[in-house]
Design brief:
Elements (H helix, E strand, L loop, with lengths): L12 H10 L36 E9 L15 E5 L5 E5 L3 H12 L5 E5 L9 H4 L4 H10 L3 E3 L9 H9 L22 E2 L3 E3 L10 E6 L2 E9 L15 E3 L2 H14 L5 E6 L3 E2 L17 E2 L1 H8 L6 E4 L5 E5 L9 E5 L5 E10 L4 E2 L12 E7 L8 H18 L2 E4 L15 H17 L5 E4 L20 E3 H7 L5 E8 H10 L13 E2 L3 E6 L14 E2 L2 E2 L5 E7 H4 L12 E8 H12 L14 E4 L1
Parallel strand pairs: 1-4, 4-5, 5-6, 9-11, 11-14, 14-16, 21-28, 25-30
Antiparallel strand pairs: 1-17, 2-3, 7-10, 8-9, 12-13, 15-16, 17-18, 17-19, 20-22, 21-24, 23-28, 23-29, 25-26, 26-27
């Protein structure tokens, strides 16, 4: 499983009502198929430098720019979510501010200069789990931004299915939202100018792929095939409604199938866009994961996938784990092959040079990453906020911000300092504790006998930052900021579980599907236990240490447990939580969070940062 679990949720009637209230309803209708951009000769090529091989013009250098897991972060992400770690020459590391669509667009445009053969690709999760600026409008602003910055092709990711396959088709083909309508008078959403690829996602009834399985990028005689897949385990981390009627297939088998098909069509140069990833040994974006040997510094699902994908594929652009790496993982023939990932939220982009042999129509893969030797070279680059902003993206952001402002700028609470969530370096995060407490408080309003709450870590999408993001003032939490933390609109569900089931669920954090990459649930006040990471599997959770209110949990007793609807459905491998009885369904989780902030904080008495001391971790 992945290191950074990503969790979905369908937008509730609350969000649709707000969005509909902001929308200016125009004429509905479906847009035509996405087309090529002007100046792209129908295939998306742009840029300037001509690579040569042996002085005979037999080879040309094709620049491939790539990124992944953008998640609608049009504005620079706040706090640690908007930083990358940079390894220094002396072995130390420093945090560098990065990201924002204005800077990403400028970075990509600058990188393309001097490259006549340049293609830009992504590896999924461009949308979903998005901040309010994009999420409030069903991610139409992000698709518009991707069109403007020159994206040529992307795979789907698990979050592309958050609102179901029909909404994903709308992202591709355009048209106004079926409930919220059009957001601007006389303007209809045009959809993506680039193809979304979903080679391993099929309709259960027809067996056909829900979107194109591959596309061929062409430029002046150069042809490169792109195959796009998401992780086979997408149904395990997406709400049931989002994947209803769909089947997700093995990544290796699917890529190999379509690589063979492309080869038969005479397309010998192939890139796989895979929304699945790995865990490098270091979080530094410039870490050498080929030390001491090729691919030695990375682990996780992508290593197995890379080793199983046919040598017909020349490079793998990956994502999902939100990590940064450029590695050489040998293909099944034992030859080095580049595997890349560019962190998340538009903080990095990868610049890869593919040396294309015009006679064989294939990528030359000798001398991988050996600069100046031909073959394939690649590196991650920071999307620095010190550079120039792209004026057209600035205008786009301002336009959508104006529509979102009445909702986004509303204060909902006050904090005395930063409350780390996604950026926390510990299994238990201060923000996770706060959210669990908020869900327990909401559940108690439904049933005074509620005992505890559990929150999935991947559902926490950001930090709460003390410093003002706009004119609201330091320490003020706005609706837009809380939305960024919890954008899924899951409901808060209350179920009955035995003490034994609660312990089993805690053990599932570190066993079975979650053994390789633990998913540590955030717990409400009063629930404590010891997590011993020196042990393996379910033994990491000592049942004897699990206490509620200081008393040992009783295996035979029944407890009322609050959680979001994703967990209540057994999501993320927590099958035991899906066995709860006597269910009660409350409001959506964002409302529960905002209500808690409003009730428990004020300008004169802001919330302190929780201690995050409920789980004792032994390393």
């Amino acid at each position: 499983m992945s290191v950074t679990p990503l969790h979905p949720g369908r937008r509730s009637a609350r969000l649709l009502a707000v969005a509909a209230g902001l929308a200016v309803v125009g004429a509905l209708g479906a847009a035509g198929p996405a087309g090529a951009r002007p100046g792209d000769d129908g295939h998306g090529g742009r840029g300037g430098h001509h690579g040569q091989g042996g002085g005979d013009h037999r080879t040309v250098d094709v620049q491939m720019l790539s990124f992944n897991d953008f998640h609608g972060n049009l504005e620079p992400p706040a706090g640690s979510s908007g930083q990358v770690t940079e390894e220094q020459p002396d072995g130390t590391s420093k945090a560098v501010d990065a990201g924002g669509a204005e800077y990403l667009a400028s970075s990509l445009r600058s990188a393309r200069e001097g490259h006549p053969y340049s293609v830009t690709a992504a590896a999924g999760d461009l949308i979903g789990a998005s901040p309010l600026l994009s999420g409030l409008f069903h991610d139409e602003p992000t698709i518009e931004a991707m069109n403007k910055l020159g994206l040529d092709v992307t795979s789907v990711g698990n979050h592309e299915f958050d609102e179901g396959s029909a909404e994903l088709s709308r992202m591709q083909n355009g048209g106004c939202h079926p409930t919220a309508g059009c957001y601007e008078k006389g303007e209809r959403f045009q959809g993506a100018d680039f193809p979304y690829l979903a080679a391993n996602v099929t309709n259960e009834k027809t067996g056909r792929t829900v979107l194109k399985p591959y596309t061929v990028w062409k430029k002046k005689g150069v042809k490169i095939g792109f195959i796009g897949v998401t992780l086979e385990g997408t149904p395990d981390i997406v709400s049931a409604d989002g994947v209803k009627g769909l089947k997700f297939h093995d990544e290796i088998e699917t890529v190999n199938k379509y690589a063979k098909e492309l080869d038969r069509q005479g397309v010998k140069s192939i890139v796989a866009l895979i929304h699945e990833g790995g865990a490098p040994a270091s979080t530094a974006y410039n870490y050498d994961c080929d030390s001491p040997g090729a691919g030695d510094g990375i682990s996780g699902p992508i290593t197995t996938i890379a080793k199983g994908i046919t040598p017909k594929v020349d490079a793998l652009v990956t994502g999902h784990t939100h990590q940064a790496y450029v590695c050489d993982i040998p293909d099944p023939a034992g030859n080095p092959r580049i595997v890349t990932s560019a962190s998340s939220f538009g903080k990095l982009y990868t610049d890869t040079t593919l040396t294309y042999d015009k006679r064989t129509k294939d990528i030359v893969r000798t001398g991988v990453r050996a600069a100046g030797s031909g073959g394939v070279t690649s590196a991650n680059h920071v999307v620095s906020r010190t550079g120039q902003k792209a004026a057209d993206i600035t205008s786009l952001i301002a336009r959508w911000n104006k529509l979102a402002a009445p909702v986004a700028n509303t204060p909902v609470g006050y904090i005395a300092g930063d409350i780390p969530g996604r950026g926390a370096a510990t299994p238990e995060s201060p923000l996770g504790d706060l959210i669990a407490d908020a869900q327990l408080a909401h559940a108690t309003s439904l049933d005074p006998e509620s005992d505890l709450a559990l929150m999935n870590p991947g559902g926490i999408r950001s930090d709460l930052v003390f410093k003002a993001s706009g004119a609201e003032g330091d320490g003020v939490v706005t609706y837009g900021e809380s939305f960024t933390v919890q954008p899924f609109s899951n409901t808060v569900n209350l179920v009955s579980l035995t003490g034994a089931q609660v312990v089993t669920a805690l053990k599932q954090q570190v066993s079975a599907a979650n053994e390789a990459s633990p998913k540590i649930l955030q717990v409400s006040k009063g629930l404590t236990y010891t997590l011993d990471m020196t042990k393996s599997g379910a033994d990491r959770v000592d049942a004897g240490t699990v206490r509620l209110g200081g008393a040992p949990i009783d295996p035979a007793a029944t407890y009322r447990v609050a959680m979001n609807s994703f967990l209540a459905g057994g999501g993320d491998g927590f099958t035991e939580l899906g066995k709860g009885t006597q269910p009660l369904v409350g409001s959506d989780d964002l409302k529960a969070f905002n209500d808690y902030l409003t009730a428990n904080s004020s300008a004169g008495d802001p919330l302190e940062t929780p201690a995050a001391d409920r789980i004792t971790v032994v390393k």
